[in-house]
Amino acid sequence: MRKFLVAGNWKMNGSSAANDALVAGITSGLTQSGSVEVLVCPPFPYLAAVAEQLRGSSVALGAQNVSEHASGAFTGEVSADMLVDIGCKYVIVGHSERRALYGESSEQVAEKFRAALNAGLTPVLCVGETLSERDSGRTEEVVAGQLAAVVALSGIASLASAVIAYEPVWAIGTGKVATPEQAQDVHKFIRGRLANENEDVAAAVQILYGGSMKGENAGGLLRMPDIDGGLIGGASLKSADFLAIVAAANEI
Ligand code: 13P
Fold first, then answer.
1. Superfamily of segment(s) 5-250
2. To test the ligand 1 pocket, which listed residue (167, 170, 237) has its Cβ within 8 A of the most ligand atoms?
């Protein structure tokens, strides 16, 4: 049985003071009985401090990006080993903002995915289509291509140690959430695609939905059979909003 994972992607938001308050709010608001896995992904400069704050809690720490290289002359980059060293368990790779704004290709994302796995991190692989791709009926083709690059480089079995996040680009930060049925269709497609190659991997992998998820719409999405949690942007920046999504998952 797959567990729910509720993950906060803070993006380029926060400050030492704001993060302290946010993390304190999250850790103190989580109920002991909940079985939902919780993850926060702060910006790089705050990872070590948040790791310290999370010590002894059940909340996991992740980064938002990682270099595909192991070490060396790559000014401004951060390696997977460094992330492990300071306490990260997860790293987001291939977020649509990185693909669109920083030109990350699916091949580069696959290399980042591999670097993360090699270091013992769990990659959270983001996939998703733009509005024009959806409108032209290309959603499945786009998502399949994004997945295929990872499978080509690391093999289907690698997905057993990863999380997938389906994030339709048109739903990110727009308040335009995918309907549960729209999201479920793509999640089912992703799982089916993986099942063609390895049924066990397909059955085990957590597939998160991301894009304007909040407390009010989380229940409907999370009740869908192939939606195993959320990757949350805006609503992960206030503990009450984030905890409302965790609570919705715990109710299912
Ligand atoms: P929003 O929840 O702000 O739409 O962001 C989703 C996202 O991009 C998470 O990675």
1. Aldolase class I (3.20.20.70)
2. 167
